[in-house]
Structure formats: C-alpha cells, structure tokens
Amino acid sequence: MTNEYDLIVIGGGHAGCEAALASARMGCRTLLLTMNPDTMAHMPCSPSIGGIGKGHLVKEIDALGGEMAKVCDASAIQCKRLNTRKGPAVRGTRTQNDKVRYRTLMKHTLEKQAGLEIRQAQVQALLIEDSRVCGVRDESNCCYQAGAVVLAGGTFLHGMVHIGSTRIPSGRAGEFPSNELPEQLQACGFAIGRMKTGTPARLHRRSIDFSLFEEQSGDPEALPFALTSRGFSLPQVKCYFGRTSARTHEIIRSNIHFSPLYDGSISGVSARYCPSLEDKVMKFPDREFHHIILQPEALETEEIYASGTGNSLPLEIQSAMIQSVPGLEEAEIIRPAYAIEYDFIQPTQLELSLETKLLAGLFLAGQVNGTSGYEEAAAQGLWAGINAALSVQKRPAFRLDRSQAYLGVMIDDLVLKGVREPYRMFTSRAEYRLFLREDNADFRLLHKGCELGLQSRESLAALEERRRQVEEELKRLNSVKVFPSEAVNSRLAAFGSAPLQETITAGKLLKRPEIAYAQVSSLTEAGPKLSGRVREQVDIQCKYEGYLLRQEDEIKKYKELEKVNIPDGFDYSRISGLSNEMQERLKAVTPQTLGQASRIPGMTPAAISLLQVYIKKFREEKTS
Amino acid sequence: MSKSLNETIAAVATPLGPGGIGIIRISGPESRLIGRALFRPARQEFSDFRPYVLHHGWIIEDTEALALDEVLVSYMPGPGSYTGEDVLEINCHGGPAVVRAVLERVLAHGARAAEPGEFTCRAFINGRMDLSQAESVAELIAAPTESGLGFAGRKLSGAFSREIKRLREQLLSLKAAISADLDFPDEQLESLGPAEVCSSIREVRSTLLGLLENFSRYNCLRQGALVVLVGRVNAGKSSLLNRLLGRSRAIVTPFPGTTRDYLEEMVNLRGLPVRLVDTAGSRAAPDEVEQAGLKQGEELIQAADLVCLVVDGNEPFEQEILRRIPEMGAGRVLLLMNKADLKPVDPDVQDKIQARGFDAVYVSAKSGFGLDALISGIRKKIIGTEAEPRADALVPNLRQKNKIQSAAQLLEELEQDLELGVGFDALTLYLDEAVAALSEITGAISSEDVLERVFSSFCIGK
Prior knowledge:
A: six-stranded antiparallel beta sheet, five-stranded parallel beta sheet, globular, B: alpha/beta, seven-stranded mixed beta sheet, flat
C-alpha cells in the first residue's frame, strides 16, 4: 500500500467533499481523511440549503463544476424562491433537504470518483519540512505524503459542546474533537481565535400540535439549483411557522444565569445574524415574540428541526421553554439544542488562494476560516481544492474578484478584512450585486470551470448557444415596434400598465417593471421559441440595462485601483503619516494591490493617497 | 500633492505687509532642531523648547551671532499640532524685510519653502481635519468680506460637516433597513414599503436642496458677483459707477461716448463683494475702437450675475427697455432710471414698468438721490432677498455644491424609479452613489457600516 498522493484533504464535511472532488477531477491523486465516513457531508444544523446570498454561492459552485447543487436538488423535499418581488439580484433559491439522502448521495459521488480515495483516520499532525507541508500523520502513526494538504476541520478543532453547565469535548454532539492539530498550528505561529455556534432542538413529530402552526409549502414553479437537474424527484413536504409566547420569554429571563453564554463560560464569538433564543430575548426585550419554524429533517425520520429554539440552557429549562410555545406543549425532545465552541484561524493569515502564508502547501477551507454555513464552506472547499491542485500542478492560482462572483467577494473579505464573528454571505456584502445574480451564474463562471477541467465542453457549448439566443432576442425586441392601437392599450390596461401614447419598441415596453416578457410577446408578432432560462435573461437584461451600465462604471473604477500593484518588499514603516496600528495591519495582510489595501478596515482615503505617493517614491528609488 | 511628507516645510503664515507681527510657521520632523539652531533665548536657564510655551529671545545670524530680530517662539509637537507634525512658530516684530530675512535663515537650515496649501494638506493627510474643514481654511484666507468670513468660520468649526454627516447617516440607516429587508426575508421585519422609503428620501433631498439654495444665494457673498452697467451713451453709467465707488474712477464728461472700452472696479455693497463693470455706451455708427468695446460688453452681459440697464429718465426710453430687458432676461436685469432728480418720472410710465414685472430703481448719479435704494436693489436681485444672510446658514462651496447637487439628483431619480415599481436591489445603487457623493464632501468612507447597522437595529436570525 503506497501512501503517496498529490493532495490530501482533512475532513469530509461540505468543504472537504468539494475540495476532494475538484482535486480528483483536475487529475490529482487525492486522499480524503475523515474521522467517520458515515457523517461525511452531514448537515449538522438546519436541513436546508441556499437562501439569499447563500443560494448565489450554490449556483456559482454549480457553474464552476462543483457538486453541492446537484446533490442538493436530488435530496430536496421543498424548494422556494425568496424575494421574488424585490428584484432579480436579490432572488434566492432555498431548498429543504432530506439530510440523510444528502450525505449518502454526496458520499456515494465521492466513492465513485476516479482518483479519489476515502479513508477513516484521525489526523494528529501535519508533516512539515522547511516551512512546507508535505503530508500528515494519523492516530496510529501512519504517515501519508502529498504535495499539498487542504485542512477542512469544521468545528472539530478543540470543539467543546455546551448544554447548560455541562461541557463535553466534541467536534459535534457525539463526535470526537481534534485537539492535537490546533496545538501544532499554534506552535507553528498561527494566530488562533475562538468562535461559538449552536443548533436548535429536534422534536418528535407525533408530539407537535401542527394545527397551531401556519403551513408553508414550496413554490411549484421554483427551479432547481443545478444546470443539469431536471426538477425534483422526491416527495415535497411542508414547513410550519409558529411563535414564542410571553411565557417563553419569561422562562428565559428568569433562568438566564444558567446559560453558559451569560455566565461567562463561553468565550467564543457568536454571529449576530444567528443569535440563540436567549440572546434574542435578552437583546431585543421589546419584541413580543420570535419565530419558530418547524422543518422535517428527512423523509424517513420523525425528527423535526425546531428552528428558532437554538440555546445552550440546561435540558430541563430547554424543555420548559420549548413547551411554552403554542403547539409544542407536549413536545418530546429527541436531541437537545446545544452550543459549540471551536478554534478558527484568522483568515488574514491566508493568501487569496487560501494557502497559508506561514506554511506553503497548506490550504484552509470552511469553518476553520471563521465562516458559517454549508454553502460558504462548500464554496471555499471548491476554491481551496482547485488552488491546491493548481499548486501541485505548478499552474497559476485561480482567482475571482469582487465583480465576478460572490465567491470572489467572500474570499476577498476573509483574507483582507478578517472575521470578528462567523462570516455568512449576504447580498449586501457584494458591491456589484446587480451583476452577481443567481440567474446568470453560468454566464459568469461556466467558462472558468471549463478552463479548469471541471465543466464539460458540451455545457459550455450549450451556454454559448443560450448567450447567442439572448443577444439575438434582445436585438429583435429593440427593432420590433408596438403601436398605440386600441387593442394594444386595452391589453396593457389588463396587465395593469399605462396605455401607449406613441409607437415604441418592444424592448422599451419590456423595460416597464410591471410588464413581463410573455406579455410583450403577446403584443408582438411571434418570436423564436425560447427556453425559460433564456426568456428570464432577456427580461432581466432588458429591464436592468441602465442600472447594469451604471454598475459597470463602478466596476471600472474598482479595477483601476486593483491595477496599482504594491511592490514586493514595500516597507510600510517608512510611511510616517500612517499610525503604527495601521502599519502593522498592512504588514500582516500584505495586500498585493492598492485596491486590496483600500479594503483593509481602518484605511481612509487620505491613507490611500499617502500609500500611493510612497509606492511611487519606492519605484523611483528602485529605478534610479 | 506628490511632495514628500518627510521634508520640513516653512512659510510666512501672515500676509506680507508693513507693521504688526509676522509669523513664520515651520512644520515637519526637523522643525525643532531648526528652531534650536536659530534661537538665542532671553532666559539663561533655557535648555530646549517646551511644548505650548512662548519662548522669548532673538533670531541670530549663524556666524556673527548677530540678532536679526527679537522674537517669541512656540513649539507644538505632533500629533497635537495644526498639521499633526512637529510645528514651530516664530513671531517676529519687524516689517516685511525682517520677516523675509528670518524665513531665509530657516530655509538655509534645511527647511523647504511650503507650497500653497501644503500645511493644510498635511493637516488633512495626518487626520487633523476632514476634507471640508481643509477646504474652508483656504476659503477663510481667500474670503474677501466679513459676511463671507462668517460662513467659512462656521464650516471650520464643523457645523457643515456635521450636517452632511447627519444626512449621510440618514441615507445609511435607510440602506440598512432595505438591506435587512432584502437579506432576511424570513424575519418578517416590519416590512419596508415604497411609501416609507419615499418619505425618508424626500426629507433628505429637501435638506440638500436647501443647502443648494444657500449656495446660490450666498455664494456671491464669498466669490463676489459680476454686475455690468449697460445703456445708451451719456445715460450716466460712469457717474453711477463713481457714485457706488464713492470716488471718481471713470472719467466723466458731458460728451457722449467718453467711456470707449470698459472699466472694472471691486466694490463692497454692504458686505456683498461686487465686480462692477462699466461698459461703453451704445449708439449708432460707432468707430472701430468702440466696436471692439461693444463686443466685449456683449460678452460681459452674458457672464454677468446682474445687468443694470441705465436709462436717462428724461429721454424717451420705452422702446429701448421693451426691447432690451426681455432680450437679456428680466430676472437678471435691474432698470436704473437715472437723472430722477431733474424731473420725476411720469407715474404712467412707472405703472407700465411695474405691470411688466421689471425691477426698477429711481436714482440720480449726480445728487446721490436713491443710492441706498440702488444698493438694496442690487443686493436683492443678486442674493434674492434684501435681508442679511442668516448667521447660521450653512453654505457649501463650489466643489461641495456639485456633490450635493449630484446626491440630490440621484435621490430624485430614486424617487421616480420607486414610483415606477423598480426592485429594491437596483434602487440601492442610487443610495450608494448618493452616500458616496456626501462622503466625498467630508472625506469619510465606510465599508461594513451597513451590516453593522442592520445587526444593531434589527433582531435577525433563525
């Protein structure tokens, strides 16, 4: 048995799975080491994937040739399209998933992948030579060699589960933590921080009075994530909306001293956008209620995920608290809610490729970088897997910038700004979000996936055909005229749109927000028969043309600053006008361009112009 | 400014003129050492400059230890100084020649002569003032009359910056509310309707429009307004110019056509600085010199903030004013009925003028009759009101005005698109740009601002 590989992935979660698949598909002999193959691709928290910003990431993963979208569609038991009335850029797809099927399907995909081996092992140490990682050693002292290692350890590094005052060292509830790796990393000089996350209780279906909850079904017209999916094959289920009661808040307030979040025993930073119920009640005392959403965990289980009940109170208090929610009076708790603290590596210690600055050949992805969420982890896994493979193959690193993808926004944010709380994707983080839509992820990224060898030539050809159809149809609409006839105006009135005063092009009519592509078609001579995807593109590109042009100007400005390179060896301590703190931050992050420097927290426009002056001076001194 | 910040710079900080005190300001890492090399203390026990203390002594020539001037020297170490760097100021007693000689000694010891505005630029770069404060320092120095000084002074104290920041905050809060709505659709936050967005946009926009109005009303108080006197030959334009100046500047003769090109004077009309221009009078069959003068006059009329059409109240003028005033635009023309002392103007004619909405003043250049009314009339036409500008009015400068204008414009477009039913995802584009325009006024930027706001204002999360 040979123990030599091109690439090793530590961890079989969402980041690890994407990293291993990308690496193997790019031709690297890949080994994935996991503590437990049964929990590979497990969804330890909500049984749902996507949403606003997150859905964008899933679509991008799919366009680049990742796996998440496909497995997600195949295990989806409900699909919704959110924000349908707030504009195309902020529409997000979200599925409820059968989490058992999800992990089984993903594991099976990895098992079937040529060039990829899976092995159960607990990695104890990285093998390091001359500041370069060249392999790993497991608990039985077995060593594995590789050109690069992707560490995707999730919440396992020094993981500690809290339920009331009970503390259990665990990677997740019921699983072993990894305590040796973080200690080695710290000894190597990595700055390690602590974060906290949590998960709500799981209840038994038969103990819930669903009549006191509001049903919510999926959208029948919602489209699947993956370009190759043809819809959803599993039975579709419902979710249920409910509310906490005054009594719930009362129980929390009078027992708050039992919460490890409030007695000081949890030091990890938690996410403000995903507070536990005790946090919500304490920090927003004016709110009369908070939402509870019941979501089935899988088709073949009676477990119900009680979203909104996340807390770290002792079991008996949790129980009383949950039973104070109308409809949950008899609730049987199968798994209690818990909080978990874990180590993360401040991502400013990474290059944009996600390779660490301290140890060549070591790439980090997922929650170890201080992020949260399956989608964020998978996207980083894909990015790290691609870049680790490229580095082994001695090819240039793969990059996407902030104007190309949410993936680019996330990596740029992580590496330049670092994180102060678990990082989650929001559309507000993307300056150029009108371009970065779910619907055009394939137009933006599929050719990149093809260049990397992760997408087929056929999908690229199909995309180019769609692009051609969109362009032609836009051209056609801009030449076809609509006349202000009585017939046309009475149709427009029926659509809730103002009558025409003069003859206009069909393209101009389509610009009206209330008018859809199909309605314009009904007023003109028949056009070509087009697929739903193409029609949607035509509609959006036509309506948003002006805004997109506007945003394009902004992108040009952004790229100008990105073009100014900060020379190697540039000495920040020479800039007398910069505070010591700012100098230190710049030295640590080592931005490669002025644009990157401008996004480091604390940089002011004055500091940027100062930097510009000194870069010029530095260059002049070098040339003279 | 591409000049190095490591260099020590020096300049005379007070206007060069006879008498009073001349201050030489030195800023940069070498300023204290330069001071030490030049200064001979009056007190024996002096060992070094102490911060924020006046040191009495003399500035000496290097070799002969000859005293150039008796001085007071103060030392302000950075970052607590005006520029944020080490600053040394030498207060000289002497006239311009001595001040210049002391500056030369300072330069000989390694300081570089400062570029115009370089002290302020350093103060800005070192974070001692924001961009709008830095600009108003330049205005303070350039402001020609007392009223102008008031506005500049207020901006320096930050009232203007505060107002812009407040408006920027309002837009950011709105953006946060929209972002929360877009990024957290499940939270069922108090849903933000187009009507709410519209009303907050309107509120900010009307404040911005108020600032723009202040600009057009008061900008002339700072910049000065161009007032052009036009009229037929011998209508008395030059005499009126002289009256306003209070002295004889134009050569006045009873012969028509004495002013053959044009004359320009600065005059302070109760705090309103005015460039007053007297043009050659118009008459039939002018010679070549006069033709050139008349052409210049036409250009001036185009550029003028106010045109004063001077007519001889004793001559028939109805045809002239009926033709010329609408031609030049009644809003920017003030009709001056000169020689009103000789014979009162026919009340019928007065009524006619009023009926057409022409503003008119009855004056006599010769006797000075109606001069107060004339000055009030000019001020009212230019500033839009005779009332003194409010002491607390916030007035943007030209650069700031342009930014405010574009912010107001963006908000107007936003409002229109909102009414059309365009999605929130696109509308935030306008908000971002409007915030950016306001940020450029004070030089402030923000990146995580919006998310910070979302998390502090809304209960988010499953």
